[in-house]
Amino acid sequence: MIPYLRTLDPFPPVESARADMGGLLAVGADLSPDRILFAYRQGIFPWGTVDGYPLWYSPDPRMVLFPEEFRLTRSLAKTLRSGRYAVRFDSNFAGVIDGCAATPRPGQDGTWINRQMRDAYCRLHELGWAHSVETYAEGDLVGGLYGLAIGRMFYGESMFSRRNDASKVAFAHLVRYLLAHGIEMIDCQMRTEHLASLGGREIPRAAFLRRLSGLTASRPSGAADDGAHPRWSTAGRDLEW
Known about the structure:
By secondary structure, the protein is an alpha+beta fold.
């Protein structure tokens, strides 16, 4: 049985997550900022809803990417140097999450980014926890990604691309930003070939949690007293690719 959580109920131990259901841990509670932030610090994340109730996951193994292991291919480096795309941070968070929601995914029937999820993450963005990296061509938003920054952790949520390499360009700028600000690990949640091609790899959940406890308790320079990060500005614009 999958536990049902009421608003104030604690999460069950992550070890009880159902491996045969992709790491599903519990159903219920709410998508308040405090609940979501607490979940991420425990290695748990919401992934859609059913009948209005959030679904909470903690898969094992966990897909992660260490910024220093980012794989910059020759073709992507050429695209970055070409100036074909402009990149901005935190200038159109809603547009990025809407782009992610509208992008068809192989093996998925519809999107898990419903109105509840969208509203929850837009609220986290307003509070300084959620951030977007946006790729533009001729002034149009053509790709990007969003996620949460807590301490020295970045939790990637979703990305989209309407033009060749647009999401990879956003990811490359994200990695540059994280390296410059001492953020040491990106949580990619579950394995995809796309993330593996960028340098992501799986590690045991126990190893992920050991790293997580220290990283989320650390506060990189520029973070607010509560640990939230201020609005990001475009990174890497003065660097050679």
